[in-house]
Design goal:
Beta-lactamase, five-stranded mixed beta sheet, five-stranded antiparallel beta sheet, 20 helices, 21 strands
C-alpha cells in the first residue's frame, strides 16, 4: 500500500513540472512575436510616425532677454527697474482636452473674458504655442501653476516697474508689452537702456518644453543705467504741492519746473493731471502730456524783468529813469492799461507794481531788433535743449513784422509763447549774474555751454528789484520763502481764443529764485484756468512757489540768508 501511494504521488509532480515548462516556453515565444511584430510595424507600416516623433524633439536656438538698464535719480533712487516675471502661454492642441471648469479657472486668475481661451484655441488650432497673458504678477503666476494643467506653459520675461508711480511718470515715461520705450526717458534712451539680447541652443520636446540646455551661443548684454538730474525728494515735494493747488483752485491743469540756477540741471518737472505708469488703464486723454516741457503759453508779466535788464544793458534807460504812467497809454489806435493808475514810477516800481505802461515805454525806446535779439538769446522761440521727446520750441515773430503796439505787448509777455521749462531757463540769466545756462535732464557737474546775456551788474540790479515784488505792497507777498530772501515775478495771462483774448480764462504764473542774494534754485509755476474764485499769479501760483522753494532749499542744505522772518499776511488783491 505504501509503495502504491508513493508512485501515485510522484507521477503528478513530474507531469506538473513539464506543464509549467511548456507554459514558459509559450509565453516567451508570444512576447518575442509581439516585439518582432511591433518592430516590423514601426519600421515598415508606421515609419512616418517615428519620423514625426523624432522631428518633435529637436534642437532649437532661443533668445535670451537682456536686462533693461535702470533709470535712477541723481541720488541713485530707482525710477524704472525691470523685475523677472513669467508670461503664460498655451498649446492649443493639448488644451482642447481640458474641461470647461478648468478653462474658467485660468480665465478668472488671469482676468480674461469668459470664453477667451476657447476662442484662442479655435483661432490658433494649428499652432503649438500662443501667449494668453504677458508679464503676469508672480502671485498670479504661481496660482496658475498650482492648477497643474496640461497644455499651459510659462516663459520667463522682465516687467518694467516704476517705484515713483505718478510722481515722475511724465519724465520717466513707460515701455510697451515688448519692453520698448514709448514715452519720456524710456523712449529717448531706448538704445542705451535695452541692451543686447543673447541666445542659447536647447532641446525641446514635442510639447515645446525645453528639456535640456546644450550651449550658450551669445551672452546677453545688460542695458546701461541712466542717471537723471532729477532729485526725487524735490520731485515729490513739487508734485504734492502742485496737485493740491490744482485741486484747491479747481484748475484745468498745471506744471512746475525746478532748475539748478548754477548749471541748468532740471531737479524737478511735474504736471497735473498725471498717471500711474504701472497701470496702463490710468492713461487717459492728455494725462501723459509732459506739460512742463511740451505745452506753451504766453508768459505775461514774468518777462518784464528781461525788458528792464535789456533797457539798462543797452543804455536806453538808467537806474534814475522815471516813467509817468497815469493808468493808460495810447499807442496809435490801441491803448495799454495798468490795473491801477500808479502815477510816476522808477524802474524798481515798474517791476514791483507790474506796470504794463512802464515796460511799454521802455520797449519803444529800444530798436525792435535789439529786444528781439535779447529774447532770442534768452531762448524764446528755440528749443530749451533738454532733448525730451516733443519738447516745445515756442514761437516769437520776426522783429521786422512788429509794429509799435506789437513792441509794447511783447514787453509784457503777449504776442509770443514759451514752455515752463523755457521760462525757467531764461531766468538763469538773472539768477547767475547774467549767464544763461543750457538745461539738462541728465546729472552733470557743470554747464559746458554757458552764454552771457546781461552784464553781472545789470543782472544783480534787476534781481534786487524783483525782491520788492515779494514785499507786502508788491504783487506776490505770498511767494515769500521762510528763512530765505527770494526774488520773482508774477504773471496773470489772459488766454487767447478764436475771437481774441477772453476775460474769463487765465494762466496764473509765477517765476522766481532763491536765495535772492546768491540764487541756488529757480522755480516756475503755471496753473491753467483756475476757477475757484482767484486767478492772479500772485494768489494762485506764488504760494506753490513759496512751499516748494522752502522745502527744496532745506533738502539741499542751503543755509538760510534771511535774518528775520516776517509773518505771512494775505493781500486782498494782486496782479
Amino acid at each position: 500500500m505504501l509503495d502504491f501511494r508513493i508512485r501515485n504521488v510522484r507521477k503528478p509532480l513530474i507531469s506538473d513540472f513539464s506543464g509549467r515548462r511548456n507554459f514558459l516556453r509559450f509565453f516567451m515565444m508570444t512576447c518575442m512575436l509581439i516585439l518582432v511584430g511591433r518592430a516590423i510595424d514601426l519600421q515598415v507600416f508606421n515609419k512616418q510616425f517615428l519620423k514625426e516623433e523624432g522631428d518633435k524633439r529637436q534642437v532649437d536656438d532661443v533668445t535670451v532677454s537682456a536686462y533693461r538698464g535702470m533709470i535712477k535719480d541723481r541720488n541713485g533712487e530707482p525710477l524704472a527697474i525691470s523685475t523677472p516675471v513669467e508670461s503664460v502661454g498655451i498649446n492649443p492642441r493639448e488644451l482642447k482636452f481640458l474641461k470647461d471648469e478648468q478653462l474658467m479657472q485660468i480665465e478668472k486668475l488671469l482676468s480674461l473674458p469668459a470664453g477667451k481661451i476657447k476662442e484662442l484655441v479655435k483661432q490658433y488650432a494649428q499652432r503649438q504655442f500662443i501667449y494668453i497673458a504677458r508679464r503676469v504678477n508672480p502671485q498670479i503666476s504661481e496660482q496658475v501653476k498650482a492648477l497643474k494643467l496640461d497644455g499651459v506653459y510659462f516663459e520667463r520675461e522682465f516687467k518694467r516697474f516704476y517705484p515713483a508711480g505718478a510722481v515722475s511718470a511724465h519724465l520717466v515715461g513707460f515701455t510697451d508689452f515688448e519692453d520698448v520705450g514709448q514715452e519720456g526717458m524710456e523712449y529717448l534712451y531706448e538704445a542705451q537702456l535695452k541692451g543686447s539680447e543673447g541666445s542659447k541652443r536647447v532641446i525641446r520636446d514635442g510639447q515645446r518644453r525645453i528639456i535640456e540646455d546644450i550651449e550658450n551661443i551669445k551672452e546677453p548684454i545688460s542695458g546701461k543705467n541712466i542717471e537723471l538730474s532729477i532729485d526725487q525728494r524735490i520731485q515729490y515735494l513739487a508734485y504734492r504741492e502742485l496737485q493740491l493747488a490744482v485741486s484747491l483752485n479747481k484748475a484745468k491743469s498745471g506744471a512746475l519746473v525746478v532748475l539748478d540756477a548754477k548749471n541748468g540741471e532740471i531737479l524737478a518737472a511735474v504736471n497735473q493731471p498725471s498717471f500711474n505708469p504701472n497701470t496702463k488703464s490710468s492713461l487717459t486723454e492728455g494725462s501723459h502730456r509732459n506739460r512742463a516741457l511740451t505745452d506753451i503759453f504766453e508768459p505775461g508779466s514774468t518777462v518784464k524783468p528781461f525788458v528792464v535788464a535789456a533797457a539798462l544793458d543797452g543804455g536806453y534807460v538808467s537806474p534814475a529813469s522815471m516813467f509817468v504812467t497815469n493808468g493808460t497809454y495810447q499807442i496809435g489806435r490801441n491803448t495799454v492799461k495798468d490795473v491801477h493808475n500808479y502815477g510816476t514810477l522808477d524802474l524798481t516800481h515798474v517791476i514791483k507794481k507790474s506796470s504794463n505802461i512802464g515796460v511799454s515805454m521802455m520797449s519803444l525806446k529800444m530798436p525792435p531788433k535789439y529786444l528781439w535779439s535779447i529774447y532770442h538769446k534768452l531762448g524764446f522761440g528755440v528749443s530749451a535743449g533738454s532733448g525730451f521727446p516733443g519738447e516745445a520750441n515756442g514761437t516769437i515773430r520776426d522783429y521786422k513784422k512788429w509794429n509799435d503796439f506789437d513792441r509794447a505787448i511783447m514787453s509784457f509777455g503777449y504776442g509770443f509763447n514759451s514752455s515752463a521749462l523755457q521760462l525757467a531757463r531764461a531766468y538763469t540769466a538773472l539768477a547767475d549774474d547774467g549767464i544763461l545756462h543750457s538745461v539738462s535732464l541728465l546729472k552733470r557737474e557743470e554747464d559746458d555751454h554757458p552764454v552771457r546775456v546781461f552784464s553781472a551788474k545789470t543782472a544783480k540790479s534787476v534781481r534786487q528789484m524783483m525782491e520788492t515784488v515779494l514785499m507786502k505792497d508788491g504783487t506776490a507777498y505770498e511767494a515769500r520763502v521762510d528763512g530765505y530772501t527770494a526774488a520773482g515775478k508774477t504773471g496773470t495771462v489772459k488766454k487767447a481764443s478764436a475771437g481774441g483774448y477772453t476775460e474769463k480764462n487765465y494762466f496764473a504764473v509765477f517765476a522766481g529764485m532763491a536765495p535772492a542774494t546768491d540764487p541756488r534754485l529757480i522755480i516756475v509755476v503755471m496753473i491753467d484756468e483756475p476757477s475757484a474764485g482767484q486767478y492772479y499769479g500772485g494768489l494762485v501760483s506764488a504760494p506753490v512757489f513759496s512751499k516748494v522753494m522752502a522745502g527744496a532749499l532745506r533738502i539741499l542744505d542751503v543755509a538760510p540768508d534771511q535774518k528775520e522772518t516776517m509773518p505771512i499776511l494775505l493781500s486782498k488783491k494782486t496782479h
